[in-house]
Structure formats: C-alpha cells, structure tokens
C-alpha cells in the first residue's frame, strides 16, 4: 500500500512540475527579447480566468466538506474525489504566472515593444459569458427548496462542476488565437516551443495519473466524476501537437533560413532596409 501511494505521489509531482515549469519559458523569452511580438494577449488574458476557475474547482473538491460530501453521495462506489493537494498548488501557481504573462503586454509596466494588442471581441465575449453563466447558475441553485444542499437535485456541487467546465471551455478556445497568429505570419518566432514541450509532458502525465488512480480505486467513476481534469489533459495534448507541427514542420524555414525577425516588427525592418539602400545609393554616386 505504501509503495502504491509513493508511485501515485511521484506521478503527481512529475506532472505538476512539468506543467508548472511550462509557465516560465514564454515570460523569460519576452523578457530576453524585450518584446511580446509574435504572441497574442488573448492567450494569457483568458488563461487568467481559466485558472481562477480551476483554482475554485480544485479548492472546492479538495477542502470543502459540503462539496466532498455531495460528491460521495453521487459516487458511492468511489466516494473520494481524485483532486489532490498538488492540483491546488498548481492552480494557485498558474493564476499567478498567467497574470504575470498578461501583464507583459502592458507597455506602461514592462516597456516591451508590442505586437498584437487586441484581445479580441470573441475572447472578451467568452469571458463575460462564462462569468455571467456562473452567477446565474449560483442564483438558480440558491433559489432551490433546500438552497443547493440536496445532492439528489440541483446542488452546489453542480455549480463547482460548472466552474470546472469554464476551465475546460477556455482550454478548448484559448490556444486558437495563437494558432491563427502563427498561421497568419507563417512563423512561430516569439512563441516559446519549450513551454509547449513541457505542457505536453504535463498533459500526458495528467491523463495517466487520473486513469491509474481510478484503476487502483477499482472504479472508473474517478474519471467520469472528474471530467474536467481528464478533458484538460487530452485537449492540451492535442493543441501541443498542433504547435509542434507548426514549429518543427510547417514554419521551420522561418528559423532555418535565419529569419529571426520578430513578428510585428516588419515596419521597422522595412525602414532599416530603406536606410541601407539609401546609403548604398549615396556610395555609388
């Protein structure tokens, strides 16, 4: 039994470490380049809301007696949620690092040269809709006869599930603006591939941990009872593969050909070339 718990701990720690480390390469790259060109602010912006949602969800399943009690009643064959302390620590760290990443798009704070500054109406609409949906659902559950304390009906655990689904929805959407940005510029310059490789490791380990935990418990309701955690790992892996294809296959010439121009700095490069052409012309005269 002790060895089984040790194996679980090792897998959980490895996954958390990989995902936590994946937050550092992009801010470090931005700091080194003194620029956010090549990346989109939509990604860190919506990530903040997503990880706040994930933090609320994991905290509820980990520490709330009411939520854990309602979970046990609904999942009698596997009454213990699969959320662990490392999930809570990861979520808190993710909120902090996502906020830091978003702040780098503020020229007033960091003074970086900027690429795309527009978060986009779709992303803003998604964020507002998610918050509004959770507020309305909370009011609905509170208005029920037992005010959400009856797990047989609409209960507060359903609100927690909804908050978790916000994170899952955001994960489905958040990578798309960056995928499109890379496609538009036919380049991944400015977008850290290291964070993607670490995210891939974390995503794979997340799914493996959840599946093995459920198998050791002898019941697959550990997966069906925590679809957010299971879905997050799979969605992350899928987008990581897309980014790897863009970086190593589709747009590798942007790096291999020595094209290290920061995306968004084309105007600056064009002006530099015009000046050089003018100098050459003067020299020939």
Structure summarized in a few sentences:
The protein is an all-alpha fold and 285 residues long. It has helices at 2-21, 25-33, 42-63, 65-74, 85-103, 107-110, 121-142, 156-174, 176-185, 193-217, 221-224, 227-250, 253-256, 266-284. Mean pLDDT is 82; it is low at 258-276.
In round numbers, the mean pLDDT is 82
Radius of gyration, in angstroms, nearest whole number: 23 Å
* Beta strand count: 0
How is the main sheet built?
none
Terminal Cα separation, in Å?
A: 86 Å
User: How do the SSEs run, as a string of H and E?
Assistant: HHHHHHHHHHHHHH
Q: Any idea what the shape is? A: globular
Tally of contiguous helical segments: 14
Structural class: mainly alpha
Strand content: under 5%
The low-pLDDT segments are: 258-276
What's the helical proportion of residues? over 70%
General description of the model:
With 285 residues, the chain is mainly α. It is 74% helix and 0% strand. The protein contains 14 helices and no strands. The protein has helices at 2-21, 25-33, 42-63, 65-74, 85-103, 107-110, 121-142, 156-174, 176-185, 193-217, 221-224, 227-250, 253-256, 266-284. α1 (2-21) runs antiparallel to α10 and α3 (42-63) crosses α4 (65-74). The longest helix has 25 residues, at 193-217. It is globular and about 55 Å long. It starts with a helix and ends with a helix. Mean pLDDT is 82; it is low at 258-276.
């Amino acid at each position: 039994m002790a060895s089984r718990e040790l194996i679980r701990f090792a897998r959980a720690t490895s996954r958390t470490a990989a995902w936590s480390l994946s937050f550092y390469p992009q801010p470090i790259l931005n700091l080194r380049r003194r620029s956010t060109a090549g990346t989109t602010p939509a990604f860190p912006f919506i990530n903040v809301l997503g990880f706040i949602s994930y933090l609320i969800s994991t905290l509820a399943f980990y520490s709330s007696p009411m939520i854990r009690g309602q979970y046990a009643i609904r999942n009698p064959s596997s009454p213990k949620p699969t959320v662990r302390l490392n999930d809570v620590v990861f979520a808190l760290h993710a909120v902090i690092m996502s906020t830091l990443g978003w702040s780098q798009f503020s020229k007033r704070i960091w003074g970086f040269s900027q690429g795309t500054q527009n978060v986009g109406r779709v992303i803003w609409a998604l964020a507002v809709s998610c918050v509004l949906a959770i507020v309305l659902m909370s009011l609905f559950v509170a208005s029920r006869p037992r005010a959400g304390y009856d797990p047989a009906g609409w209960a507060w655990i359903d609100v927690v599930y909804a908050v978790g689904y916000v994170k899952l929805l955001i994960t489905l959407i958040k990578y798309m603006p960056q995928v499109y940005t890379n496609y538009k510029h036919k380049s991944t310059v400015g977008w850290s591939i290291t964070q993607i490789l670490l995210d891939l490791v974390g995503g794979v380990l997340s799914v493996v941990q959840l599946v093995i935990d459920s198998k050791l418990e002898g019941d697959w309701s550990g997966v069906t009872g925590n679809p957010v955690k299971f879905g997050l790992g799979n969605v992350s892996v899928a987008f990581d593969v897309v980014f790897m294809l863009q970086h190593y296959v589709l747009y590798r010439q942007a790096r291999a050909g020595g094209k290290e121009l920061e995306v968004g700095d084309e105007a600056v490069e064009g002006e530099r070339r015009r000046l050089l052409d003018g100098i050459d012309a003067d020299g020939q005269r």
